[in-house]
Specification:
Layout (H helix, E strand, L loop, with lengths): L1 E5 L4 H16 L4 E5 L1 H8 L3 H5 L7 H18 L3 E4 H7 L3 H7 L2 E3 L1 H8 L3 E4 L1
Parallel strand pairs: 1-2, 1-5, 2-3, 3-4
Helix pairs in contact: 1-4
């Protein structure tokens, strides 16, 4: 299993973490993500694609494709991403929206217990 803790809200880092989850799942490998403080708001943002157009690490000619793919990766990975309970509370996210758009809400200790001996990455 691959377990990814998604902390950064930077589009490029979020893209990397989501790519890891989607790639593992596409190979038939179990994959789970935990969205923490920095990543949670962008993952819930219905305007993620539009906002990603202003990223600074992608050349202007590639930003549209990057932004579109980021949104697609988010949508593909969302059923395997859990929101950190502390992050949901701390950023004032609507629990109903979180449960609608992601796999649900879980505490970090519970996520780590369930991940067991998974390969762990933090992005």
């Amino acid at each position: 299993m691959l377990a990814a803790i998604l902390e950064s809200g930077e589009p490029e880092r979020l893209y990397t973490g989501l790519s890891l989850l989607v790639s593992a799942a596409s190979e038939g490998r179990p994959a789970r993500g935990l969205a923490t403080f920095g990543a949670l708001a962008p993952l819930l943002d219905p305007q993620l694609e539009r906002r990603a157009l202003s990223t600074t690490h992608v050349v202007e000619a590639e930003r549209e494709a990057f932004a579109r793919t980021l949104a697609q990766l988010r949508d593909a990975a969302a059923p395997s991403i859990w929101a950190c309970a502390a992050a949901v509370q701390a950023i004032g996210a609507d629990w109903a929206v979180v449960n609608e758009r992601l796999a649900g809400v879980i505490s970090t200790p519970q996520f780590l217990r369930e991940a067991g001996d998974a390969q762990m990455v933090v992005v």
